[in-house]
Write a structure and sequence with these properties.
With 196 residues, the chain is mostly helical. It is 51% helix and 10% strand. Helix 1 runs antiparallel to helix 3.
Length: 196
């Protein structure tokens, strides 16, 4: 209950404060390439329910059909504005809408697409008992995930066999000891990581 009040209050406050920045970003996206301002992708949420996650569109329209993983800073599918948004995690700001709607929280396991959730073991599915979040331990630990994937011949294999299990372990660490204090610590650590 406390977490939901926290999410509601700060998502409303965040959207109000950030509105001018959101408008500027939306205009820049439209100027550079045709298509929607937002990219809405189906992710797996609490209780294994699908929902649409909001992001600013950082790729040219239709690029997701060429693969779900982003490979490095020079992925040709990413627009110039998109590169800047991704670098500073600004593309994630529209997820405040998801938090306001209740499909996400500020802190919680990052929601995966169904394709990768299908690789979860029975024990891993405990992650889906809580709301997914905008940030978590794994988001901080794998801040440069795209760069890691760029340096391998088989990025999907590396993601599934190496990166994803480590993310899952961090998610289990989070859900084992949930608290408002932990959430605040993760949020502050996320900002610190972005600023670095």
């Amino acid at each position: 209950m406390i977490k939901r009040v926290f999410d509601l209050f700060f998502s409303l406050l965040g959207l109000a404060i950030l509105l001018p920045i959101l408008v500027v970003i939306a205009v820049l996206i439209q100027i550079e390439s045709k298509g929607s301002i937002f990219y809405r992708q189906t992710r797996v949420g609490k209780n294994s329910q699908d929902f649409k996650i909001f992001k600013f569109r950082t790729m040219f329209v239709g690029s997701d059909k060429k693969g779900l993983l982003t490979l490095g800073d020079n992925d040709s599918r990413v627009t110039k504005v998109g590169y800047f948004l991704r670098k500073y995690k600004l593309d994630e700001m529209p997820q405040l809408i998801n938090v306001l709607q209740g499909s996400m929280s500020f802190v919680g396991p990052r929601p995966e697409v169904r394709k990768y959730v299908d690789y979860y073991s029975k024990d891993d599915l405990q992650i889906l008992q809580v709301k997914p979040g905008i940030t978590d331990y794994a988001s901080i630990a794998f801040r440069d995930e795209a760069e890691l994937l760029k340096d391998t011949d088989n990025p999907e294999k590396l993601y599934i066999e190496d990166i994803m299990p480590k993310k899952i372990a961090l998610n289990k660490k989070y859900i084992a000891n949930p608290s408002v204090f932990t959430d605040v610590k993760i949020i502050l650590k996320t900002f610190q990581t972005i600023l670095k």
